[in-house]
Structures are given as C-alpha cells and as structure tokens.
Amino acid sequence: MKELGLVHIYTGNGKGKTTAAFGLALRAWGRGKRVCIVQFMKRGESYGEVQAIDRLDGIEIRQFGRGRFIVKGKASEEDVLSAREGFEFAKGMLFSGEYDVVVMDEICITIDFDILSAREVIAALRGRKEGVEVVMTGRNAPPELIEMADYVTEMVPVKHPFEKGINARKGVEY
Fold first, then answer.
1. What's the rounded Cα separation, in Å, for the pair 39 and 104?
2. d(CA 90, CA 135)
3. Is 19 left (phi over 0), alpha (psi -120 to 50) or beta?
4. Which CATH number fits the domain that encloses residue 71?
5. Residue-wise pLDDT tens for the chain (174 aa)?
6. Do the domain assignments include residue 174?
7. pTM to 2 decimal places
8. Per the structure, how many domains does the chain have?
9. How many beta carbons lie within 10 A of that of residue 15, not counting itself?
C-alpha cells in the first residue's frame, strides 16, 4: 500500500474542523512531510493557528479571503474571485508534486455557498499527483465529496459556552 494519497474531510456544525486539519498538518510536518495549507474565505493573522504555523519553517500557508464573515447567498464578486484564486492555487499545489499533504480549509463552505462546484473540486482531486494526501474542511460537505473521501469526520456540537453567552476567546476558539 502507498504511504500517502488519501482524502480526509472534517465537516459538521461542531467546533474543531480547522483545528483537526492543522493538527494533521503538524503531525505530517513533524514526520518530514512537505505541507501546504490553503485557507478559503479567511484572511489575517487573527487566528492563533495561523500565527503558530507562520513561526514554523516548512509549512506553507496561504489565505484567500477578505477577512470578514460572508453570509450564504451574499458573497460579493470580490469574495468569489478570491475563492477562485485560492482554488487555482490549491490545484497547482495538488498537481505539482511539491507537497505531500495539501489542506484545503473551508473549501466545503465555498461549495455550499455555490462559489465552487463539487464537480470541479472532485476533478482536481482526481487529477492530483499520485501520493498527495488531501484534507478538506468546512460545514455542509456535499454528498459527492463524502462519497469519494477515504476519511470523513463529522463534528457534532453537544454543548458550547456560546449557549451561555460566552463569546469566542483568543487562543481557544480562534
């Protein structure tokens, strides 16, 4: 069996999708794998995990977004162009063979928001260089992606401090 080349999805309404993907990226990097993280619909260093990765030598991270919350059905032309730019970049990483692991953080949201299609993401996955492990995150992963993935984990919220009025905290939620 080949060492790498499987597809992972972290989806669901619960907390921890990006955190799980970054954990896998760190694990791979720690084992000498070449890692690239492409974040869709995010921008800025306000995320603690981005600040940590920036301090490491050997994991490339690129963000494609405007740094603001996007409401489904209300993505601006700039949001769409940014996501498309990110997808073209991610495809380049998948096809190049330069990386062993490619994380596409929040790509499922771009599909759910009708910015990218499941069909084009699946085509990119099928066309990737052999042996490239792929991790995708985001709520509402489409059934077509779930079908083709090797690992699918659904994060399910059971209890969250937000329900008690506790807002997101630096270093824990972001």
1. 6
2. 12
3. alpha
4. 3.40.50.300
5. 468 899 999 999 999 999 999 999 999 999 999 999 999 987 766 678 888 888 888 899 999 987 767 778 788 888 889 999 999 999 999 999 999 999 999 999 999 999 999 999 999 999 999 999 999 999 999 999 999 999 999 999 899 888 889 888 878 877
6. no
7. 0.91
8. 1
9. 15
Identify whether the C-beta of residue 26 lies closer than 8 Å to the C-beta of residue 153: no
Phi, psi for residue 10 in degrees, rounded to 5: -115, 115
DSSP for the chain reads: --SS--EEEEESSSS-HHHHHHHHHHHHHHTT--EEEEEES--STTSHHHHHHHTSSSEEEEEES-SS---TT---HHHHHHHHHHHHHHHHHHHHS--SEEEEETHHHHHHTTSS-HHHHHHHHHHSPTT-EEEEE-SS--HHHHHH-SEEEE---S--GGGGTPPP-TTTT-
Neighbours of 48 (CB within 10 A): 15
Q: Which residues pair with 105 in a beta bridge?
A: 39
Number of residues that this document lists for the chain = 174
For residue 119, give the amino acid letter: R
Domain holding 92, by residue range, is: 7-164
